[in-house]
Amino acid sequence: MPASKAPPSTRKSKPASRSRRKVKWLQPTTVKMARAQKSKSSTVAPVGVPPRSLKPAATTLSPLRRATKMSVSAKEIKELRDRTGAGMMDCRKALIEAEGDMEGAIQVLRKSGAAKAAKKAGRIAAEGVVKSHVDAAGNGVIVEVNCETDFVARNQGFQSFVGAVETAVVETSGGEAGAAVESQRTELVASIGENIQVRRWAHYPPQANRRSFAYVHPGSRLAVLLELNSEADLNGEEVTGFGDDLCFHVAAMDPVCVGEADLPAELIEQEKELALEKHAGKPEHVIENHILPGILKKVIKERCLLNQEAAMGEDKVTNQELLAALCKQLGQDVHVSRFTRFALGEGIEKKEDNLADEVAKLAGVSA
After folding, report:
1. pLDDT in tens, 66-79
2. Distance of alpha carbon 221 from the chain centroid
3. Whole-structure pTM value
4. Would you call 327 helix, strand, or coil by DSSP?
5. What are the structural domains, with CATH classification, of the chain?
């Protein structure tokens, strides 16, 4: 019998390796070119991207960028800062702009400071200090210098500026003291960053038979300058004690004038108008003969320094009575020539911040 043939195999023949074919397909000319390029240069253009010049394009720096590349040492910045009080970054920028010239940088900072001062001039400055003192030569000085916050009022640079203002008041005899320190003020504004104003001042120069007294309340928010005159010796212990006590009294009781003769006419008229409004309908002769004289007497007692009850006396005596006792003790007349009282920020309209409105503003909603 003929040998039986094996049944045909049902297994399909294994096709050629796809991976080999795939690798073969993934060998395009661009890959070969890239490999050839790599052998020539370590920098290769991305596969599939036509080769192009890889040389970086030349860049041209602007004058400003070229200037910022200038080297400024920390020592130069410190020196400029010590001389001007400006911030470190402001000093660095000024030195760069002045190309390292120290005096030129100072001028740059002054111009910048003037611009900053002009921008801040409209901001409310109701904080600060009031100061008064009497120097060894007998000059009496009182000043008010304002800033925006009590934090700056305690700053050493600000305190030094106040001292410069006091000196300027003496040197100008109470004249253009503000103008004399204007350059210092603008530099301080640039350094501190707040609006600073020399608001007001007064000067009592030394004169024969006159002596000035000064008082500054703790915190430097209230100050008084007062002057006595007499043929007697004004440097004695009795006069010194009386003058100091009277200064304290002015600070505490806020009189508007020395005596009845100095009472401002507008204050009297104002009190009369209030009295007429309050007692409207009453007979005219009652108002004229009883009410108005009583009102005037009350104003004199409450607002005139010599007619007020002494703040430092244990007994209820007026300053006029204490002055009379001093005159009797000295054997000479003593007069209160004048006084000046400064309360910090009085008359300045301050901005009242509402906490709820501020929080709502930060949150972007209406309160």
Report:
1. 444 567 788 888 88
2. 15
3. 0.65
4. helix
5. 74-121 (1.10.8.10), 127-263+304-343 (3.30.479.20)
